[in-house]
Amino acid sequence: MESWKKVLSQAGRVSGVSLKDMAAAADDAAFWRAPSLAVDCGKQPLDKPAMEALEAFAAERDLPSSIARLFGGGPVNASENRPALHWALRGGGEDVPAVDEMRASAAKAAAFADLARSGGLGFEVKTILHIGIGGSDLGPRLVWDALRDYGSEGPTIRFCANVDPEDFADATAGVDPSTTLAIVVSKSFKTPETASNAALAREWLADALGAQEADRHLAAVSSAPDRAQAWGAGPDRIFPMDEAVGGRYSVWSNVGLSLQIALGADVWSGFLSGAAAMDAHFRDTPLSDNVPAKLAMLDVWMHTALGVPSRTVLAYAHRLAKLPDFLQQLEMESNGKSAADQPGGLVGPTGPIVWGSVGTLGQHSFHQLLHQGMRESVMEFVVALDSGAGDKVRGRALLANAFAQAEAMLAGRTAAAAEAQLLAQGVDPETAEARAPHMHMEGGRPSSTIILDHLSPESLGALMALYEHRTFAAGVLWGINPFDQWGVERGKVLAEELDEAIAGGAVGERDPSTQRLVDMARKRHG
Ligand code: F6P
């Protein structure tokens, strides 16, 4: 693609320029505003000519048509011949035929949530045991952690995802079965981890309450109602999942039933409306001001044109501690691909390794590598200006730490400056000279800062929708399909085969290492 060649030529130019100089010259064009949030890219190697080249590339890729196809309900998931309709769960989509059915199902779930919240199930729901994995778990966990103070009068949610029964034991520790509603969330209702935990939950309830009463404490969100019913959920307690909503994009759907019950309808609708505002921004804004699209361009720029293999998400708001986990699935399951899906093919290595932590904990752990190590990563700070839960001093400390990290990564420190500092502190000249090279920090390490004014249902919805749309747009720019996950499917099939092999069944043709591992496991579990 001609426009991509120009992007690469810009990358060649920028590689020879100091990031510190670029940052010093950056103006307001590096500060992007979208509903409920803003993005500061003033510490990225992204100047006007580079941005123009990226916009030309996005135009040649016809990103605007892909955005229009997404919001028109067209088939954006070619390998499964499906549209992606997660955005319609937040409003809009009146012209898309499937949306009426999705709305009806959402209304049914909302009515159940009201009933459960108001004691209408015949018992008081004090705990929701939310069972699911991947997209049926990570979004709800993030939202619950971020917003649970808004639902203070509702029940608490306990999450259980791992097939290791220790997870179930932790999730139910100290919980009273008689006030627990177990909700299994699984599109297929046969994901092994979830099926196993669903069985444990039913047993746990039946042991305490008796089999008949236990069933009144079950509900399911699934596209496999037969399997959910066989588990014990009554037909009026099974809420569908739409095939056109992928797991990692599904928190807005009935997958969020636990959240609707625990947080209440007002918080839930605020969350959806914040996301809907981001949808409108992504759908209606030209590329030059479209923040999710520009972040996608930044991703392709940093991770493909400039070749930085990873992105580190640093959530400087404790309530957003689960954001890196959520983004790992959203971005790596969406864009960790190598099969071309767009005319023009792939432009180079696709999705980055996404990882991170909650600030300031990472500072006392892996930030050393980010400051002085020899591997590169693009940092992404996420801050909320109202952090600190009303405690101005501590909130200020949190923000100061985030800004300081970003500044230190950009500015670095020369050995000469370090030596002068040591001498000023009274360190003897010989020690100062020997120590200074170890205190040298190269600097020029790029970062962005995403700023929420206030962590609220609306801004969280906007933030998560921002990341969804960025992921989709980046997939289009890379030339892949962000909505399938064939790699993960393969692992699920092999796990079933190996489970049988460990139990004593045929091992089949396997590599010697796997054969050895199966033999060892058989001794315990065969
Ligand atoms: O991990 C693969 C995956 O298919 C995810 O995309 C999905 O969110 C998760 O498994 C759970 O699947 P299910 O909802 O069918 O249990």
What can you see in these coordinates?
With 526 residues, the chain is α/β, with parallel strands linked by helices. Among the domains are: 86-271, Glucose-6-phosphate isomerase like protein, domain 1 (Rossmann fold), CATH 3.40.50.10490; 486-525. The chain is 51% helix and 11% strand. It contains 21 helices and 11 strands. The chain has helices at residues 2-15, 19-25, 48-60, 63-72, 98-117, 138-147, 165-172, 192-209, 211-215, 225-231, 257-263, 265-284, 291-305, 323-335, 367-372, 392-411, 415-424, 429-439, 457-478, 486-503, 512-525; strands at residues 31-34, 37-43, 127-131, 156-160, 180-185, 218-221, 238-239, 310-316, 353-358, 378-384, 447-452. The strands form 2 sheets. A 6-stranded mixed β-sheet has the order 1-2-11-10-8-9, sandwiched between helices. A 5-stranded parallel β-sheet has the order 4-3-5-6-7, with helices on both faces. β6, α10 and β7 (238-239) form a beta-alpha-beta unit. The longest helix is centred in the last third of the chain and has 22 residues, at 457-478. It is globular. It starts with a helix and ends with a helix. The chain binds 6-O-phosphono-beta-D-fructofuranose.
What are the salient characteristics of this protein?
526 residues, alpha/beta, Rossmann fold, 6-stranded mixed β-sheet, 5-stranded parallel β-sheet, 51% helix, 11% strand, globular, binds 6-O-phosphono-beta-D-fructofuranose
> What composes the largest sheet?
6 strands, mixed
**Highest CATH level, the class of the domain at 86-271:** Alpha Beta
Helix content: 40-55%
* Strand segment tally: 11
| Percent range for β-strand residues | 5-15%
Q: List the total number of helices.
A: 21
